[in-house]
Design a protein that fits this description.
Layout (H helix, E strand, L loop, with lengths): L1 H7 L7 H17 L3 H5 L6 E2 L7 E4 L13 E4 L4 H12 L16 E6 L3 E4 L2 H15 L9 H14 L4 H8 L4 H7 L4 H26 L3 H16 L2
Antiparallel strand pairs: 1-2, 2-3, 4-5
Amino acid sequence: MFEAWRWWLPSAGAGFLPAARDYVAASLWRRVGLRISESARLEVGDWYPQMGAHGVLHVRWGKGARGSGPRQRLVPAIDGVDRLLAWWLEQVRPQFGDDLAGGRAMLLPSRLHTPGAGRRAVCAATLRQGLADAVARWLPDWSGRLTPHVLRHFCASWLYGRGVGLSAVQALLGHVWVSTTAAYVHVPAERIEEQWAQANARVGVRLLGAADGAAGGSGELGVGLGAVGVAVEGG
């Protein structure tokens, strides 16, 4: 869906700017798990392209725990977000016509002006509708089901499935408790089977190494292989 959305943008005509903005917002939810409220309140100056290997977004309005107030965090621009933001800020965002100097302009602006203060922040409802329109166009079977929050779940599952640790996913998504992150991660059966096979292989290598070191003879090696069979096949 996202690839089709990206390629469609140049043909959006007069609707190009809001369509590109909605695409960038949804990409942030999908790739680095931002909340819709966090993305709507980002300013241009919250992007630090020189920090880290990919640049970072300073999320200043993260969700706090139990009314503790906004919880800030730095979000690395992984999974192509650095290239996405470079394209947005260099080629598209200036077309909204407001002054970006000083970094206080909204990263994802509304088409409405605030007198003396440039473009207003886009509202969450507008971004939500932009995603809904894209889903209806390119992924109609998911209409009404693929929401910004579901994309956060997708982000967590996608990164975890590629080997990113649970605590790193927790930090990226801004969860206070790792148990919340664990609930976001949906692991397919194939991944479980793969991890089980890898774990058994590691056990086998350790047991074979121990048997080789302790005995050094073919008889003992046979005993070691038998132990591996028990370790791999036992309950």
